Each structure stands twice: as C-alpha cells, then as structure tokens.
Here is the input.
Amino acid sequence: MPSKKQIDAKSEAGNTQWQNNATRKTTSINGVGLWHSWTRNFKSPILAILDLLDNAFDAGFSKSDPTFKSKIHISEDKWYDDTLSYDQERVTGIIIANNSAEPICDILSILEVYKSTKSDSESIGENGVGLKQGCATISDLSFVLIRSKKQMSIGLIAKDLQHEEGAFLPSYPLNQGNVREELKRIFMVEDPEVGKSAAAYGFGDLNVAIDRLNTHIEDMCNSSIWNDEKHVFRLIMDKIIYSNVKDLSQDNMNEFDLYKRPVVGLMREIKAALPSQYIHIPKHFDVKIGLEKVYFNYWQCRLVDLSVFHVKIDPDNSIIVSDDWKDPMLGYNVRIFLGFDPIRFVDSEDPNSTETKALSLNLYSRQSGRLIRHDPDGRSALGLFAGGSTFCQGLTVIVDDFAGQLPLNPTKQDLAFSNHANGQVHEKNLYLWLNAIVGGYYKYVVDQHFKGRKGDLSKGVKKRAKSTETLFRQRCDPKFKIKSLAEAHYTSYTNAELPFRRWADKVICCQHMMTNARIEGDDSRSLVKVEQKQTRNIVVRVGNKRIERAQQEAVETEIVDKQEIITPTEDKQEIITPTEDKQDIITPTEISTSNGSIRSSRKKQPTVHFTYTDLEPITSSIPALPSRRNKKNGKNWQMLAEKFEKNAKRLKTKVEKMTQEAESLKAKAKKLQAQYTESQEDYLEMVTYKNEEITNLWKLMDK
Ligand SMILES: Nc1ncnc2c1ncn2[C@@H]1O[C@H](COP(=O)(O)OP(=O)(O)O)[C@@H](O)[C@H]1O
Ligand SMILES: [Mg+2]
Here is the structure.
C-alpha cells in the first residue's frame, strides 16, 4: 500500500514541469524500435541474466593477477519503508553487484549502443549490446552504478526514455560529497524527464527513489563487502518481468508480492541453472545467490569414466584433404570431455521426468567456460547412429572451447558459423572430430569394459547412480573439495598421437590405437570394478573345434575410484571426501558371466570362446608359483599363438598375390578399353562413309 508520504510526493511529482534536456545525447536510431528488438532477442529471461553475468565474470578475470578474488553477488533488491508499521521489507527487484580487476570503463561508453570495450577472444562479450538488451529483457527500469578510480557514476536503462526520434540511455558522474543533493539536482533540475523515469523506483516518489539509490551508493562505498574494492559495479533491475513462476502460493498476495513473485521465481531458476552454465569459474571466485555460495563443480561430481581428448580444430582448411590435419598449423585447441551421467540415466526412467538417456551435447566457450549450446539428444547433430539404445546410456559430451575461437551469435545462444569466412569448413571440421571422438569413445567403452554389450553398459551406469548422487549432494558443502575440470587428470587417449585415421571423407577411431594411446586418469571415477583375481576353468575353442581346457588366473581390469580429493593440511577430519558405496560398482563378472560364457567381440574368424566354470576368488596375496599344469598350458597357448601367426602370414601372402592379380587385371582392362575405343572410332567412321555412299546412290537413282 503506498504511504501518505508517497501519495503526496506523487502529486508533487505530477506538478513538476518535466522537460527535455536539449543537450542530452541520443542516437539517431528509433529508440522505441530498438527497445522492442532488445526485449525479443533472448529465448528466455535466464539467458538475459546470463549475458549480464558474463560481464561480471569477464570483469573478474584479471590478466595481471590470476588470484584476483572476484565477487559476484546476486540478490533481491529490498525497500525498507519506514513509514509502514507492519512488515517493512519489500522485495522490488534484483541486484547484480560485482567488483572488477581492472578499472571500469566510463559510463558514457558503457551505455553507448553497439560499442564493446572488449577486444580479446577470451572475454564473453564482444558486441557491446549485452548489458542494454539484458536489462531491457528483465526490466523496464534499470540503474547502472559504478565506482571506479574513486569516481562514482549512475546510468539509466529505461523504457519510457526511448522515443522514435532516438534511443536515450542517460548517464551522469556523481560527486561523492553529497550524493543525495547531486541526484536531486540531476533528476529535478538538469534532466526532469529522467527524474520522472527514476521516480518509478520510489513508486512514484522521486525522493524515495533518491533515498534508495543513495543507500546503494553508500553500500558500494562503505559496506564491509565492497569498501576495500577498487572498482565496483552494480546493476539494479526494478520490477522484474518474469512470468514463469510456477509453484509459489497465490494465497495472501498483496500489492508488493506482485513484485516479489517474479524475483523469487527468477532467482530460483538462476540458482538451479548457474552451476552447469559455466565450467571454468575458479574456486576463489565468490559467487553468491542471496546468501548461498555457488559451486562450479557440476560435471566432475556427476560423470563417471570421465575422459578427455585434446584436439586442434582447423578453422580454414578441410581436414579431409589437408596434410597437417591432426596438428594444423593455424588450428586452435579444444578439449572434449566425455563421461556417463548415472543421475540423468536413472531420472529418465521416471515417467514424469523430461530427462532422456540419449547422448547429450554441451558446448562451452570462452575463458569462463560459458554454455553456448545444449542438445539433449546430440546424436544426429554429431552424425551418429540414432537408432535403438546406441548412445543411450547417459553419455555426456562437453566441448570446451577454452581458447574462445568458436563463432557465437550475439546473444550467445548458439554457434554462428555462417557469419564467418570459411564457416562451413570450420563447422564441418569440428563435427568430423566430434563424430570420431564420441563414436570411438563409446565403442571403446562398450567393447573394453562390457564385451560389446550395450545392455551391460546400461546396467553399469545405473549401478553407479547411488554413489554419484551421494557425491553430487556433497558438492555444495564448503568442506568438500574436488579438482576443477581443467586441472583434473582424467583418462585420456592422446599418448603419442591421436588414435584416429582418415577414411572415405571421415575421421575414424582405431581401437588398437586407442588402447595404445590410453593414459589412465587419476581423477576418473570408473564404470566397472576393482582389481579382482579369479581362478577359472577355461574351455577354449577355435571355430567349433574344442582344442584346450585349462585353468587360468584372470586379472580383471583395475577399476577403483581414483577421484582425487585435495585435502587441506590443517584439519583433516573436517574434509569431506566423496564417499562411495562399493557395492554400487558393477563387476565384469556380474555383467558377463550371466549366461556362463563370454564371447570375444571380434566377429571375424577364427572365433575364440571362453567358457567359465568354478569362479573362486584367490585369498592369498602372494602369487602362486606356476604349476606344471600351468606351464603346460603356457606351452599350449604359445603353440596356438604360433599357429595364428603362421595363418596370418599365409593370409598376408595371399592378399599380396591377389592384389598383384587385381593390378594386372586392371591394366588388361585398360588396354582392352583403349582397343575398344579405337575400333569404335573406326567403325563409326565406316558407318558415316557408308551412309554418304547410300545417299549418293539414292541421288543417282533419282536422277
Ligand atoms: N558487471 C560489469 N562489471 C564491469 N564492467 C561491466 C559490467 N557490465 C558491463 N560492463 C562494461 O560495460 C561494457 C558493455 O557491456 P555489454 O553491453 O555487455 O557489451 P560487451 O560485453 O559486448 O562489451 C563492457 O565492455 C564492460 O566494460
Ligand atoms: Mg556483455
């Protein structure tokens, strides 16, 4: 309810002669149209907020001081109305407050339309319009407050200051001596039309608006959080435009709840979205929503068998034809992280959930690692087989363009290859690599850990859900520590060279090269279980022929949770380490021996079948000396290997012979073709000659 003081002020404001300041700086662009276009550029309000936060993150990255402690606080803007005897606190909007490592540009150039002060590829801003269109999407009235190099200034991004004759984003330097008086002079004398807009912040009462702005400025200058900061930026967005408020109760709503509801709804959405929207926000950045700190450790707490590939993308030359396709001279580096998301996998089984098990593609770019594109089913985008359950085990792909070389659209909602020279080649190169890496990784995991069975991979992923959920719950505990994506040591496949080759206009992955290139990561939580020794009776067959029966010690793949936790030196007991329910991890025996036999994944001849019986774990840790029987088995294996080797040699000679034959047949065919062409020409000549003769004969007969 507006107070009496407010109502009086409203009428006072109404009596004031609002006039245009003739000297004000406007653009020749139609301001009404420009505002309208700003409000339609973002697909959703959260994307507008993210664009505003990009500026705050950019300001936190310092070139000279990598340890600069960036502060970004998103909070409710409250009005403490002391004229009311009840419930004095009113939520009216959202504040984004941050410090800056470098001096902040002067407000005049910041509010200049289409002028960016950033020129490097690392920062996320580049079009010089994010701040204005972000504010216009969220609110009809925003204030920009800056304290930098001891100078205070204020700017307005207001809908009702835009006219067809021009766009108007006024800004003013402030003398810190008496801010209240200064604001009065600006809003009442110097530029009353701006004052009229500003009065909306005081619910029609300009004095209330000035008081509220003065409180913000005091906080920026004198509060314990901000007073030590050299450069401080604050955005106040009043009366938020946000209609996606779902489950807030309608009961007991008063006039002010109308403003509070969108604020609470939007803040909730920001809180849920933010951790997965950025992947490279350093741990020392102090990012808060309300009073809660935001932890940017989303994927490393969620994905199992987290692996990384390092590739260089050529933006200009097609990798299908270029000689240096694996290491292009003018290419740029990207990291591709892959892993399986057990939480998503299990959630997708809930009929009410919108989650899917399909391969999800997440494309991040720039220094802050901002999410640019999220494809819940990226199989067709990556040109991968999209049928059945292939790639449907919660596989998650993270493309990390940390060098900031991918072209983004102005609102950072997708890639914009078409705006760039050679954009098509650039795009194709990126997707060829993604196709090879994602397809190769998936097949490698299925074949190596699950003997080629997708169903077993699904079971494996599902089994990891409980422990992953526990880890994911812990990630926001201040005592919980985990390495960042960039610092961690995940399993990689780039030992000497990338395990890929080119084949028929594609890049394909070679499994044996993958095995050679594999570097086990210390920080990858694996999909299958701990080192296990088991004694097995094995029946070996080649083709259909049973040739051997032997007892063998089989050592399963070593699969332990190697998640490295950084433990601070002081109070070790205080640190939370990611707990793991060991029973959660799937064992290869659970998967593969269910039908009593494991089939080699290679389908080509000769096929070897192993039949396991008698599975007993060995309890002694000292390895037993080889028995006579085992020695004999060893000999048999050796003989078998020699036999295979001989066979391979024979086949090789055969192939060489056949290749020679093919070559000579090719040459013969070429010769015959030439002879044929020659004779054909002769015959055609003869036919022409004969036709002429016939024509002449007819002519003679006619005569
Ligand atoms: N939160 C902020 N902290 C510090 N400086 C900011 C902030 N927001 C905007 N700026 C400054 O305002 C300029 C304009 O921002 P914007 O319109 O988003 O364009 P861009 O990000 O493309 O440069 C930025 O280049 C930056 O200098
Ligand atoms: Mg920007």
